[in-house]
Backbone:
């Protein structure tokens, strides 16, 4: 093992040097050295700065760090802040703080001394492979402290990554607000240590943080450094009450190794102190079915003087407003076994599925890597894969397109390079790393070198490059409009239901023009919609509609331009009730991407419909069933030749859709139904029947039947148009997806 590590490290040095040259050349930036002594206010604009040795910021100075800055720390390099610091990045343009060598990281920032007029603020800063990103030394004091929306990851240190020691009680004159909010702390072996979360001069808000996927290897449950969060909670008369709510603290693990076995448990939070109790309600501690909160609470109180920890209620899911992270992992469609060992795994890994609390996206540095022992060296292979995003980019299915066994089973899988809408890193997923019994390999993180299987695997940038002189989430920057709740993906395999409201349009013998846009021919239409989204574009639907259509030979205004039918002297009019049921196939021409996307579609199918034409006589207000009368002589001399009241048709049309929420769609559509009847309006090419014969066939109605058949007292044929009638409708459909 020692030989292969030496071989590997020698190769790393050459690769790192090459990468540094490539990155600097590609970005076109000059690497600048940070001054060792900063005695006046200093602003670092976008660029790359190296930190070597110990740098000092005087007590009267303020260090301002702008978006796009990359600070590269040499081994054990430190920036001591005796004054103030404002490191404020931007969404999708974070400040990057990293180390030249992952295995020999820099120390980070140290806040020192009493400066009542100075502030400490870190916002939208990514700390990656830094030993102790931010620490507050004993007897410190400031006007205010804000640590918000930062990413602290890969702090591979057996101690505190974020350490807040006691303040100076003698020289601190007023209450210090201390915010630790909206941060992500992940993939580390160190802790967040707060010496005293309660004080009469310090108030701490510890809210909305994501603390997950931290691992503590080879150490027993001693509390301080086997928990991602460790704090002292005392209660005195004048103490300010801290807040600790709406955090997502779960899936943090400790591992104990013996000769040939190991033990894995969960560990989330350690609290000691003289307070009687501490309320942890309103936080997410993992899936309630795993009973993670009970397991970690039992650990917290063991072997320490500790407050009684209780909760009235906890969150069942992590809130969507927290930084992006996954809270469910499936391997081959089964829940991830955290004790997985590749060498003992029964089958190949074919799929990895991850569910997120909010929409995320794969960055330019995204990759699925397999780290394994090969001969006398450690190699990393980029695994060919296929990504399938669903549920508004909150569910990712990764299909592996090659077998891992061909590389050997002494290794582990890594999924890395995911970001949320603000460019905040999603924690890295490791599969099989906790179960490795080789302590050297287990603790080793491959750096810089990747053995690519083919030119297909070559990335634009090395995904394991520790010198981050670029934004690894620039893809997120390009697609940032897709996020913040607006990102959508049309999930396949779901059902939906909806309601339609609109207007019906009639095409037939009593219509003024061939294509009707006359509001006089529009009548109300309503119905229900049901569907199944089979693929991202293909949908099968069932719809039911209840509508009215109407027409008349008596339009308002000048009738001389009307060329439809015979003449308007017919004085015919009608109203028809239609109830139809359709089965349709719909195809979206585009995919949904965001809520503001307009997606056109076309559809066609078949239907059955019932129709009932009716009319009035001289406006008396009573409606008569025209079919039963036989207005074209269908019932004369005892005949029974009425047209059918149930017919079939071919509906087709188009729509345009837009989401109004993640699960609700509104669409504007037009449907035309081609029918195979000319009697929707009770008028076809038949002749006016003899009045007496019609009265004999309708003895109850008598002269009324004649008026309904020939109100204009016209001769010969009722119409010369032999085209079938039709109807259409347009309107709005509100559809809700069934999850």
Residues:
């Amino acid at each position: 093992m020692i030989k292969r590590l030496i071989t590997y490290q020698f190769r790393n040095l050459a690769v790192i040097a090459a990468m540094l040259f490539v990155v600097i050349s590609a970005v076109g930036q000059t690497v600048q050295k940070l001054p060792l002594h900063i005695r006046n206010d200093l602003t670092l604009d976008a660029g790359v700065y190296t930190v070597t040795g110990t740098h000092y910021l005087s007590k009267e100075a303020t260090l301002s760090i702008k978006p796009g800055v990359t600070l590269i720390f040499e081994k054990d390099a430190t920036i001591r802040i005796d004054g103030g610091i404002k490191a404020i990045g931007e969404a999708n343009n974070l400040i990057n703080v990293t180390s030249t060598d992952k295995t020999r990281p820099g120390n980070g920032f140290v806040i020192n001394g009493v400066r009542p007029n100075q502030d400490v603020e870190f916002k939208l800063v990514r700390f990656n492979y830094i030993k102790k990103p931010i620490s507050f030394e004993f007897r410190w004091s400031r006007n205010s402290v804000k640590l918000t929306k930062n990413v602290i990851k890969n702090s591979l240190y057996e101690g505190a990554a974020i350490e807040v020691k006691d303040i100076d009680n003698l020289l601190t004159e007023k209450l210090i607000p201390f915010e630790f909010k909206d941060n992500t702390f992940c993939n580390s072996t160190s802790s967040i240590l707060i010496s005293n979360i309660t004080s009469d001069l310090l108030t701490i808000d510890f809210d909305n943080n994501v603390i997950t996927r931290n691992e503590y290897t080879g150490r027993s449950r001693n509390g301080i450094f086997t928990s991602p969060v460790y704090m002292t909670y005392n209660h005195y008369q004048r103490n300010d009450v801290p807040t600790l709510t709406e955090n997502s603290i779960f899936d943090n693990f400790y591992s104990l190794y013996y000769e040939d076995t190991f033990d894995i448990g969960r560990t989330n939070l350690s609290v000691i102190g003289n307070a009687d109790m501490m309320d942890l309600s309103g936080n997410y501690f993992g899936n309630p079915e795993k009973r993670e909160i009970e397991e970690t609470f039992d650990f917290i109180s063991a072997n320490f003087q500790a407050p009684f920890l209780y909760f009235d209620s906890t969150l069942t899911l992590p809130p969507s407003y927290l930084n992006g992270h996954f809270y469910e992992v499936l391997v081959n469609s089964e829940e991830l076994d955290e004790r997985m060992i590749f060498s003992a795994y029964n089958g190949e890994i074919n799929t990895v599925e991850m569910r997120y609390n909010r929409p995320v996206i794969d960055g330019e540095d995204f990759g699925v890597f397999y780290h394994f022992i090969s001969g006398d060296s450690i190699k990393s292979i980029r695994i060919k894969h296929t990504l399938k995003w669903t549920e508004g980019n909150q569910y990712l299915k990764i299909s592996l397109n090659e077998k891992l066994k061909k590389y050997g089973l002494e290794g582990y899988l890594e999924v890395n390079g995911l970001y949320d809408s603000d460019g905040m890193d999603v924690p890295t997923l490791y599969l099989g790393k906790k179960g490795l019994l080789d302590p050297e390999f287990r603790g080793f993180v491959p750096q810089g070198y990747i053995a690519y299987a083919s030119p297909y695997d070559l990335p634009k940038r090395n995904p394991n490059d520790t010198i981050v002189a670029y934004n690894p989430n620039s893809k997120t920057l390009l697609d940032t409009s897709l996020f913040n709740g607006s990102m959508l993906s049309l999930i396949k395999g779901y059902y939906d239901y909806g309601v339609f409201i609109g207007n019906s349009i009639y095409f037939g013998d009593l219509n003024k023009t061939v294509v009707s846009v006359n509001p006089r021919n529009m009548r109300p239409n309503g119905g229900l919609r049901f569907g199944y989204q089979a693929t991202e574009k293909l949908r099968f639907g069932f719809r039911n509609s209840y509508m009215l259509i109407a027409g008349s030979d008596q339009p308002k205004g000048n009738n001389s331009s009307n060329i439809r039918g015979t003449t308007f002297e017919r004085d015919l009019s009608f109203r028809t009730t239609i109830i139809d049921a359709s089965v349709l196939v719909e195809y979206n021409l585009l995919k949904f991407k965001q809520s503001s996307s307009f997606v056109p579609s076309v559809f066609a199918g078949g239907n059955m419909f019932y129709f009932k034409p009716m009319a009035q006589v001289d406006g008396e207000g009573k409606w008569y069933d025209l079919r039963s009368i036989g207005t074209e002589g269908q019932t004369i001399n005892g005949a029974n030749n009425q047209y059918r009241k149930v017919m079939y048709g071919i509906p087709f049309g188009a729509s345009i859709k837009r989401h109004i929420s993640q699960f609700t769609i509104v669409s504007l559509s037009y449907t035309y139904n081609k029918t195979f009847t000319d009697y929707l309006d009770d008028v076809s090419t038949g002749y006016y029947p003899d009045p007496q014969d019609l009265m004999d066939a309708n003895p109850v109605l008598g002269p009324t039947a004649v008026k309904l058949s020939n109100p204009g007292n016209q001769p010969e044929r009722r119409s010369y148009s032999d085209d079938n009638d039709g109807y259409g409708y347009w309107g709005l459909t509100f559809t809700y997806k069934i999850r």
